[in-house]
Structures are given as C-alpha cells and as structure tokens.
Amino acid sequence: MSRPPQRPKSNARPVFKGRGGRPLGTGGETPILYGWHPVVEALGNPKRKIRKFLATENALNRLREEGVQIRFEPDQVRPGDIDRLLPPDAVHQGLYIEADALPAPKISDLPANGLVLVLDQITDPHNVGAIVRTAAAFAVDAIISTNRHSPAATGVLAKSASGGLEHVPFITVTNLSRGLEELAEQGYHRVGLDSDAPENLDEVALPRPLALVLGAEGKGLRHKTREFCDALARMDMPGAIRSLNVSNAAAIALHVAHRAGKSA
User: Where is this region: Disordered (predicted)?
Assistant: First the structure.
C-alpha cells in the first residue's frame, strides 16, 4: 500500500490566531502593526521592539528592492496566514508585526515651546489614526488621551495612522482635567475647539507652548473639559456643510497653529 505524497516542509514557524479570531493585542496585550507604511516605519524606529514579524515573499522582495533595513528577521508566510490573524477587511499588503508599545513621555517631559493635541473621548480608531498621521506631518510633540474611552494604539488605528505612531508619542492620563491642569503648570496655553465658541480660531491667540483640545464627533468637548481650557474657538465653514470630521478639524487647526507659530 503506497503512502500519500508528503507536503513539502515550510521554513516558516506556525502562525497562531488570536482568541476568537481577533488579532492579538486588541485587548491591550501586544500592539499589532500591519500594512506597508506602519511596518516600514516600525522597522526604521529603533525604539520599537519587535516580537514577531511575518512577511509574504512578494512583500519581502519589495522591502529589499526599496532598500528598507530589515532589522528583525521575518518568518516568510503565505498571504492567507496573515489574513487569519486580522479582520476580514484588513489590508495588510503581506506585512504583519507584533511589537512592544513605544515608551511614553510624561507631561512634564514636554518641550517648553511644544505643540500637543488633547483628545477628549475620541473613540473611533479610524479618526484617531488619521489625527496621528496629521500630527506627524505637523511635528506635533505628543497626543494626550485618557486610559479609558480611547482606542488602543494598534490594528486599525495604526493602519490609519500610516506610520505616524512611530513619530508622535502618546501620553495617557487617568483624568483629562488633571492632565489639562498639568499642561497649564508647564506653561501650555489650552485652546478647545467648540462649534459654539464665541470666537473663530483665526481670531484666537495661539502662543507656544500650545495644546489644542478636540472633542468627539457629535458630543464635542465635555463641560468639564471646557472649564480647563484657556480659550474656546470655533471653525466657521463657508460652504453648505458647516461641520467637519474631527480628523479634518484637527488638520485645519494644526495648519492655523503652525501658521501662527511662524508669524510669532
């Protein structure tokens, strides 16, 4: 009786699914990074400690062709092996990393002329990821959010940030009001974006160091958060649609603040 043909052995180590089919790290365990820009930026960041790196043959070839330094030897896998680790709609482009969280500074470590964003219970990881990407483009020194009511810096957020997580540190605080108090103690001028504010953002002083405070879509800034801002400002839109997605509002606010900083 002849034996059935044996499948060729793979050099790759086995790939394990997260609990319930969810990617590992979504519960605050191990940050997950996938997709071209998040993974390439993580590979280039010596502060990012990589635990596992999976890559398809095509993705590895592209990394080598583009001269990306591969400082952690990947396991070569098939695309389906990565598919099984991620949600069905995740676009991983053949690259997947499990890594340690990046070290986070304290508010007292912020620069004396810094620019920071403060997020008041913005929970959508797509929005936060887009904010991180914009913050990296405007050289924001840190993003401050709460331990609760904010998404983890992994998965969808990291993908939406398109590598920005490697350039903008997160500071998490237990109490946002206390965090805003600490910013004031460090000399930061705190400007909250509020659609009902009496002044337009263009008319408000934006001295450095500066903290721009953003609220969740729909709810906006909480009443307690408003109390700990030095000024409130709105953004008037000339078109038929008066409100903006919070990530778009962050981009405009950072542009106005950057322009004000250059003219100061």
Answer: 1-29
